[in-house]
Design a protein that fits this description.
Two copies of one chain form a homodimer. Chain A is 12% helix and 39% strand. By secondary structure, chain A is mainly beta. In chain A, strands 1, 2, 3, 4, 5, 6, 7 and 8 form an eight-stranded mixed sheet that branches. Chain A binds a DNA duplex through helix 1 and strand 3.
Chain lengths: 164, 164
DNA sequence: TAGACGTAGA
DNA sequence: TCTACGTCTA
């Protein structure tokens, strides 16, 4: 398809500003903010084979937590989604979870997008660049869940959606 | 959501020209060409309760046939998709199928969109307005399939994609 | 709440 | 081929 051989990148996307809103996930794919149409964590593979996260989407399906726009506690993917009726399983340090773990070690920035319910309807808002500060291994419903604490880079426009 | 209370309409969409291309189905939803993200047949309900088709998407999943841009034989929805592994069942004259049938009786135009594979990749192309000329009841894999023959309104720009 | 001609990548 | 924080209407 059109996207084959298109380069994924880490960091800001030219033409996309903090606070930009999108109606559909597909738009995130088109502009290059988040190239996975359904997965919460997008990542690329470096020449040395190591995978690094490029962006995450907080759509509210997992038990994430964002007390202020400066901090996001993001749940890993796989096995333990609260909205699934299937039996939970232990999350593994692979795929998107491994990518976020590597991003912490490398100190590379992550683009954060959140699904919000505004008066005009649901939309995805680009929150800007964050860094993975901590990787935690917790338990929910008796099974392993990865939790990633992300901190917002300073110097970016304020965002107050959802915090009155 | 944003689309609640937005009016579906029959006929041309302001700002969309014949031959316009779209990368994702979601874009068809956004511009109002086809408001169903996955279904092939979109329709509206008139004040008198009758449903009328507004648009169809030919994505290649069903056994449709378009010998030239002037004629499209479009398969009804439900029960009998060649690409499904599940056991086929008889299609019913309801939902999108009923809507297309009613559109023939009323003589109202249908927007036609086709998924094409171009050198640049897959995309959805707006083919323009068509009228339902005939409704047929056929059999495939032993089960009932509705077939709708659509004819293109004259006076619209030529389209030669896929016909060399 | 389920079903429907969705998409990209592993 | 399958999975994955999709999205609209009935």
């Amino acid at each position: 398809g059109i996207w084959v051989n298109t380069i994924r990148k880490i960091g800001s996307i030219r033409g996309v500003k903090v606070g930009d809103m999108f109606r559909h996930r597909a738009q995130l794919t088109i502009v290059g903010l988040h190239r996975q149409p359904l997965r919460g964590i997008d990542f690329l593979r470096r020449k040395d084979g190591r995978i690094l996260a490029t962006s995450i989407v907080d759509s509210g399906r997992y038990s994430n937590n964002m007390p202020s726009s400066d901090t996001l506690i993001y749940s890993g993917e796989g096995g333990n989604c609260p909205f699934e009726t299937t039996e939970p399983t232990n999350q593994k340090l692979k795929g998107g979870n491994l990518a976020l773990n590597n991003s912490k070690e490398e100190g590379t920035p992550i683009r954060v997008i959140r699904k919000l319910k505004l008066s005009s309807g649901l939309c995805y808002v680009y929150y800007g660049l964050y860094i993975v500060e901590k990787v935690m291994r917790a338990r929910e419903r008796g099974k392993v869940v990865y939790k990633f604490r992300l901190g917002r880079y300073s110097g970016q426009p304020k965002l107050t959606f959802g915090y009155s």
